[in-house]
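Worked example

This section walks through a single chain of length 312. The input is the sequence exactly as stored; nothing has been trimmed or padded.
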Amino acid sequence: MATPSRLRHVSLLLAFFLAVMIALPAVSFAAPVLLGSTSNFAILSGQGITNTGTTWIGGDAGGDVGSHPNPAFTGQASVTLANGTTHLADAVALDAKNDLITAYDDAAGRTPTIIDTELGGQTLIPGVYHSNSGTFEIAAGQTLTLDAQGDPDGVFVFQTDTTLVTFAGSVVSLTNSARYCRVFWKVGSSATLGTNSQFVGHIFALTSIAAQTGATVQGQLLARNGSVTLDTNTITNGVCAAATPTPTPTPTPTPTPTPGPTPGPGEDVVPSTDSGGVLPNTATPWYNVLLAGAVLTLIGAAGLWGTRKAHV
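Given that input, the structure is written out below as C-alpha cells.
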C-alpha cells in the first residue's frame, strides 16, 4: 500500500522534474570546438598558400598565416597582414596543425541531425548538422540564416563527408545573437567559396580550401593536408568577445494629466480609460504549459494510484 509519505515524495520529485524541464530552453548544452593554438591563424594549410590579387588578412583574434610542412607562399607580396605573422614550416605552424587535427576530430565526432544538401533559403537554430548526401551547398545568390534564438553561446556545427561549396553571391547570415566564432564547418575533402560570396565560421578541411575572387570570410580557413588558394579576399579572424547584455530600458516618465473641466451641478465625471501604453506580455511559453500539464497529470495519476492501493 502506498503511504502518504511516499506520495509526497513522488509529488516532490515530479515538481522538481517540472522545474528542470522549464529551465532547459534557456540552457546551451553544446560546447564550442576548441581551437587551441590554431585560434591565432586566419589561414593555415598543409601544402602551401597561393594568392592572386590584393588580399587583406587580419582580425583581433589573430591574422597569422601558416603552412606545414610545405612552406610555399605564392603571391605573398600582394597579401596585407594587418596584425599577423607568417609561419612557414616552423614549430609554431606545426603546433597549430596538431591542434587543427584535434579540432577536426572533435567536430567530426559530434552526433548530428541529417538535413538537405542545399542550405540556401534555410534558417537553422544551434545544433549539429550533417548533409543527407555527404556534401553541403549554398546556391548562387541564396542566404543561409543562422538563428541563435537569443543565445550568444549557441553553437552550429556542419559536417560533410566530402565537399562544401558556396556559389557566387551566396551569404551566411547571423541573427538573434548568433556569432561567427560559434560556427564550425568540418569538411571531409575540400571547400570552395564562390565569387563575391560572404561566408561565416571556422572551416576545418581535410584537404584544401579555395576562396574565389572577392569572397569574404569572417572566421578561419584551415586546411589539414592540402593547400589554401586566395583571390582578392578579405579574411577577418575576430575575437569571440563576451556577449553584451541587453541594457535595461529607462522607464518613460508618466506625463501629468491635464485637468479636465470642473463638472457643473448634477454632472458626473467620466474616468479616462486610456492607459497611455500597451499591455505587458504575460503569456506563458507554450512548452511550459505543456510540461506543466504533463507533470500535473502524472502527479494526479500517482495520487489516484495511491488512493486505490489504500482501499485494496
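What to look for: The radius of gyration is 28 Å.
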